[in-house]
Fold these 2 entries.
Entry 1:
Amino acid sequence: HTLFLARTAAAYGALTANRTRVSRFLRQGERVVGAVITDLESGDETEVRAKQVINATGVWTDDTQAMAGTRGQFHVRASKGVHLLVPRDRINSRTGLILRTEKSVLFVIPWGRHWIIGTTDTDWTLDKAHPALSSKDVTYLLEHVNSVLATPLVPEDVEGVYAGLRPLLSGEAAETSKLSREHLVAHPVPGLVVVAGGKYTTYRVMAKDAVDEAVRGLDEKIPDCVTHRVPLLGADGYPALWNARHRLAERSGLHVARIEHLLNRYGSLAPQLLALVAEDPSLGEALPSSDDYL
Ligand SMILES: Cc1cc2nc3c(=O)[nH]c(=O)nc-3n(C[C@H](O)[C@H](O)[C@H](O)COP(=O)(O)OP(=O)(O)OC[C@H]3O[C@@H](n4cnc5c(N)ncnc54)[C@H](O)[C@@H]3O)c2cc1C
């Protein structure tokens, strides 16, 4: 999904550069006038100049704000969340579940051939690039889900795990589950806007608020934001292609379940992949040991 956001922006003329790291900001007096970025694949450094820079670096916000010498405006804490994957046949249910816990809620969501069970909410102060689960996380999740299952799950049922970090605005609450899920936008020095906190669900509101703030720093008349009316690449034309999925399966020689998977993932851009498969049929074969994927 994040890749499709970048591709959608690029389709509207944005220049995008992934696998690059900002190593410092460019300054003209107090004003931020751009950033030095390092290509993490080649190691090359490039100067990018901009009238306004927006810092949207999630749990790394304190580190990146420190580069601008503005640490202290607000802080972002990392809260670790863990999800477990267990095979579908381990839970005899036709629907997902939402359970109340003492801290928050626990979801049990059907996902392909697995159930996703999550999540936890604990402070993380170690390497932000590598959040890792502990046996305590597994015990917590299994204990809660087992409280409603006729046949309890055991650690051996767990086939996969995910661990991620939520960027939470730092407040008075010691527990991360009580910290605000709202976002904040600030303009700590001329030329630099920072947006932090928030949720995935509200990413367009966060983007609008951050860009509106950056626009206030420009001496130009800029039209109002229209993000709420801009579909992602792949959204336009999706329902018609979904209706045509059996025909796509026939034409491509792929099973209709594969077509559905590709449509769910790439929307109306899926035919681009089917064109590649037509050129090189080996691309239409399942990945060894990972049957669900081409
Ligand atoms: C387990 C879990 C469950 C969640 N559940 C939900 C949910 O149900 N609903 C919901 O809405 N939200 C949920 N969230 C929260 C949501 O995922 C996050 O709020 C959101 O992903 C944060 O996005 P972000 O872009 O602010 O930060 P990130 O996705 O962390 O992006 C920050 C980016 O900045 C980059 N970066 C850092 N430093 C630099 C630098 N120096 N130079 C260049 N780039 C840099 C990083 O590489 C990263 O790509 C959940 C999060 C977790 C972990």
Entry 2:
Amino acid sequence: MADKPILKMDGIIKTFPGVRALKGVSFEVRKGEIHALMGENGAGKSTLIKILTGVYQKNGGTIYFDDNEVDFKTPIEAQQGGISTIYQEVSLIPYLTVTENVLLGREPKAKWGNIDWKKAHEEAKETLKSMGIDIDVKKAVSDYNTAIQQMVSIARAVSMKAKLVIMDEPTSSLDDNEVEVLFRVMRQLQSEGIAIVFVSHRLDEIYQMCDRITVLRDGDFIGTWDIEELNQQKLIAQMIGKSETEVKALSGMKQVNDKSNEDVVIKLEGVRRGKKVQDISFTLHRGEVLGLAGLLGSGRSEVAKVIAGIDGKDEGKLEFNGGEINLSSPKQAIQKGIAICTENRKTEGIVPNMSVRENITLACLPQISKFGFVSRKKQNEIVDLYIKKMGIKTPSPEQKIKNLSGGNQQKVLLARWLALHPTLLILDEPTRGIDVGAKSEIHSLIDQLSKDGLSLLMISSEFDELIQNTDRIIVLRDGVRVGELNGDERTQDNIMSVIANEGDNDEIEGVL
Ligand SMILES: Nc1ncnc2c1ncn2[C@@H]1O[C@H](COP(=O)(O)OP(=O)(O)OP(=O)(O)O)[C@@H](O)[C@H]1O
Ligand SMILES: [Mg+2]
């Protein structure tokens, strides 16, 4: 029976010091359905998932899985019980091989009880192949990009014969092609009767994949709907607790500004760096928001890293405010007024055990210190300002940042760089994992900042985000600039056709 529940969570309560993360949440998932768990940053989605999967212990409520009451004490117990989780941040053991990660502890044994590696590799390879991924399984997972690592996590779930697979923002680090592969795999799991809980802040994905939607808001259960019952506007309204009319007013389009007459802030001429940056030239003007579009691996982040002094260039010229610069460190770049908010908040951004206050002011400390002493007053002013301005959800500035929800961590990072008052701010995937409400807040912030004269270079895998927020878009493919789109030319179709077009570069620009 297709609509028999495989999972029933009732009245789940979870409190952390100062936070009531779940206030009696109910959640029911049917066999073989793809069920979206929706809510703003900090609504309690990941907490609910972590309680189900034994990462956290609940303070109240009951859980039934596959007709039995369960209370998993550890993630391993949950896995053995038939629930596999693909976490928001990939959770593999990086130095182990793909095979070891897929099979982890269930490797086939040879005669003497040793692991039969030949068989193990074959099994891992087959599982991945069935998902359309053909890779060398003897390599360490750390040798592969996030997308592949994600697939390895899913392969592990498949090989463990899970009855319920939970995916907490699996697509946030995947490009379009990889998302397609993931969706195919999800459909395949579904056809085998496996239920999937899917968390994503990208509404198009929800509507493409899911059968039902459950909405949480501030730790409360708001409701569960069939997908047909809840259009996008209704969904957003439920998530943020506002009326549909108010939601409509939120979704305005940025007015495009031609900034070509303004001073040039940064100019790249024939910049090269390693294999990823082959030949990049462009200018960015004062108060302009310039987008870098391209597929994963097109060199967008690598270009950003050269400008931000993280990577040195091999060849070419970099000019900033009219003078040539040669940066050898991010520190130098920051001193000049170039800041970057990197895409990988977990490894390159946040300091998990530091407080929100410390994380926000980490970069601007020299500016608020005298004789090596930090002015606590100034620090608090800055922290309060940004917590308010960006709507960062935290019980106090002293909360460790690792305890904030993913989206709120991202806002803290952004605040850190804004607090430096840079001339040029590079945003690499600034709204990844950020909910619709916060996303539109960040978008209007970008708009405001550019009006105040800040120049922004924005990288996003979501083309509609680029179109909505930039004045001009440069398209990259394989480390080469292959096109530029101005004003009304900035459409999804045009970006795609510039990326897809293998022809002569000049010709492409001519066409558009
Ligand atoms: N270990 C923890 N200690 C303290 N507070 C926590 C902890 N984990 C989560 N929280 C708090 O619980 C609330 C719910 O967080 P949760 O991570 O479940 O949100 P989420 O819905 O997954 O958000 P996002 O979309 O940003 O991932 C937040 O206010 C968060 O700060
Ligand atoms: Mg989360």
